[in-house]
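Journal club side-thread
Mid-discussion, someone asked how the predicted structure for our own chain would compare to the paper's figures. Pasting it here so we can look after the session.
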Amino acid sequence: MGVRESLVRMLGGVPAGPRPPRREPNALTGWPGQAFDAADISGQRMQGWMPPLFSADTERSPYRNRIVSRVRDLVRNDGWAAGAVTRVLDNAVGVMLRPVSKPDYRYLAHLSGNSAFDAQWAHEFARALDSWWRSWADDPGRYNDAERMLTFSQQMHLGFRHLIVDGDALAYLPWLEDNIGMGRARYATAVQIIDPDRLSNPQNQYDLKNLRNGVEITDAGVPIAYHIRRAHQADWYSMGDTVIWDRIERETSWGRPQVVHFFEHHRGGQHVGGTGMLTPVLQRLKMLIKYDGSELDAAIINAIFAAYVESPYDHGITEEAIEGGDDSLGVYQDMRTQFHESRNISLNGARMPILFPGEKINTVSAARPAGNFREFERAVLNNVASGAGMAPMQVSNDWSDVNYSSARGALLEAWKTMKRRREDFSIGFASPIRIALLEEIMEAEKLPLPRNAPKFLEARHAYARCRWLGPGRGWIDPVAEREGAILGMQGGLSTLEDECAESEGRDWEETLDQREVELSAFRDRGLPPPEWIGNRNQGGNMPPREDA
């Protein structure tokens, strides 16, 4: 007889049969037979977590206005949110986003059979094309802007702001021939930045198979037209236009862009944005605002209510005196009042408190902010920075606990995201606008083109190929990082073009041209060039001038 059977018999029970085999858990928290904890619906941690499974457009379109209005409210009224948007704008786009032409001369040579399409031609063509581009993009008359208020770079700054706040960047490219004239516009191509709120279904109807939040698509999912409300829905002063939508085709029959719509694609089959950079951290930012406000209110109250005078009567005695008609309480209060009115003694401008018999002074300790306030705020801001693709110190602007290594590592990671955002925006938003202008420039201006040069529409991508320059990464330790850049160029791991664009956002040819001007200025004045000019030979003599 086993031990188990003996114990059962001693207790007067009956054995329940053989013991079942011990069952090992199949997962950490899941119910038996379930392979993934992530699919658990009965456990304490996952119970009730049943998010909907929607398509990309279905999960965005119905809630777009609510999300965008909340994000805008944060950016308007919260310093952390406004600062995060400003940092991204300044690092990714700034107000000097410009293209440097890089025509694909190899493709043009193969297409035309003309070997004159070479690197030298590409250099000459790029310099001429970029000069015509600047005459339009930086026009003092702002004829590049249909509203005549912004330069092209400023328009891109505004479009990128809509992208990171609203989730969409939208532009219309009207053909304004009436602007052309002496002292006026040189080209008819113009750009108008459209508020994404105006992109919506006519008469606010529900999304349909071929209409998604104002974007008209084919059965294959190709956007072919955009429905844009003539005025914002909240513009009461343009009430008639708020109920009129214009259907504008995406491009002309020969492929010229008319509407440029860009957003970050997070899923296949997505045709609208509606979720900006701060959407994933919106709730935490709102919680932080409330916490900051509560701590500030408490600190102000404690600062104002610093001390109080306590009388000798407690609540019970006071209540009995009032109900019993005892005049002693009133007499005592009158005596206190008369005492304090005649006692206003100060020493060197500081008042000396003299108390009536029975009184005592108590103080309020202002224990604000709470002990864990700083750490809580830092944790929330780290979450915001991670969700926005930024370094934590870029959001908080607090560099007190950061050393060189950690700062450089964090900023390099953030720079990858900034650079990706700039290139993504340049490809999807700025380049289509540039293509529309280049089509007009190729027709209106005399550019250096060899014989048998393909027409612009035949090789649009080859002529329009370019590299967009924006703000540089900058330096944390200028001496060490510049020395590293020089070593990289000398070792063949980098080029002057890469270093100028990456670190300072400048064109390398313009840098060399400026160095040449400065060197000539030293020579013309008979001054020895300093060592930083970089032109001394081993003997320490200046190289001879070509015209000497």
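Post-session note: The radius of gyration is 36 Å.
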